[in-house]
Amino acid sequence: MKSYQTNNPAATQALAKQLAQLAYPGLVVTLQGDLGAGKTTFTQGLARALDITSRVKSPTFNILNTYEEGRIPLYHFDAYRLEFAGAEDQGFEDYLGTDGVTLIEWPQYMADLLPNDRLEMTFTRMGTGESDRQITVQGLGQAQAVEEALTDGSGK
Ligand code: ADP
Ligand code: MG
C-alpha cells in the first residue's frame, strides 16, 4: 500500500499523470471515496495525460462513459446508481480488463464484476484544510507492479 497526501486538485492530478504513464490495456483501477473526495478530478487528470481532449465528467446517469481518442481507450464508470439496480447483464464485463484502462467510481456497487487483478485507490478528506486529501494505492495481482512503480508516498 502506498499513501499520498495532496492539498489541491492539481496535486491529485499529478498522481493521476504518473498512473497514466504506467497504465496498460486491461488495467482496472477502483476509486473509492465519498462524494467530493476527488475521484472524478483524478480521472480528469488521467484522461488529460492520455491525450484525451473531451471534457470528462462523472457518468452518473449513464454509468459508463468511454473515451477512445487517447493513447489508450479510457472507460470511466460511476456505479453509484447500481446500488439497488445491480450490475449484472448490462455488458459491463466487455470494458473490464480488455483493451482500455478502466476507472471505476463506487466500485462496491459492481463488486461481483471486478477482476482479481486491479489497483485499488481510496480518497479521503483529512486534516483541517478544505482541500487536503489522503489517497492510498494498493495493487492486487498483476497490478502490484503498478503500485511498486509509483513514487513513494508519505509512507503511511
Ligand atoms: P468525486 O468524484 O469523488 O465525487 P470530484 O472530483 O467530483 O469528487 O470533486 C472533488 C472536488 O474537490 C472538486 O471540486 C475539486 O476541485 C475539489 N478538491 C479540492 N482539493 C482537492 C484535492 N486535493 N484533490 C482532488 N480534488 C480536490
Ligand atoms: Mg465523481
UniProtKB/TrEMBL annotation:
<dbReference type="GO" id="GO:0005524">
    <property type="term" value="F:ATP binding"/>
</dbReference>
<keyword id="KW-0547">Nucleotide-binding</keyword>
<keyword id="KW-0418">Kinase</keyword>
<dbReference type="GO" id="GO:0016301">
    <property type="term" value="F:kinase activity"/>
</dbReference>
<keyword id="KW-0479">Metal-binding</keyword>
<keyword id="KW-0819">tRNA processing</keyword>
<dbReference type="GO" id="GO:0002949">
    <property type="term" value="P:tRNA threonylcarbamoyladenosine modification"/>
</dbReference>
<comment type="similarity">
    <text>Belongs to the TsaE family.</text>
</comment>
<dbReference type="InterPro" id="IPR027417">
    <property type="entry name" value="P-loop_NTPase"/>
</dbReference>
<keyword id="KW-0460">Magnesium</keyword>
<protein>
    <recommendedName>
        <fullName>tRNA threonylcarbamoyladenosine biosynthesis protein TsaE</fullName>
    </recommendedName>
</protein>
<dbReference type="GO" id="GO:0005737">
    <property type="term" value="C:cytoplasm"/>
</dbReference>
<keyword id="KW-0067">ATP-binding</keyword>
<dbReference type="InterPro" id="IPR003442">
    <property type="entry name" value="T6A_TsaE"/>
</dbReference>
<dbReference type="GO" id="GO:0046872">
    <property type="term" value="F:metal ion binding"/>
</dbReference>
<dbReference type="Pfam" id="PF02367">
    <property type="entry name" value="TsaE"/>
</dbReference>
<keyword id="KW-0808">Transferase</keyword>
<keyword id="KW-0963">Cytoplasm</keyword>
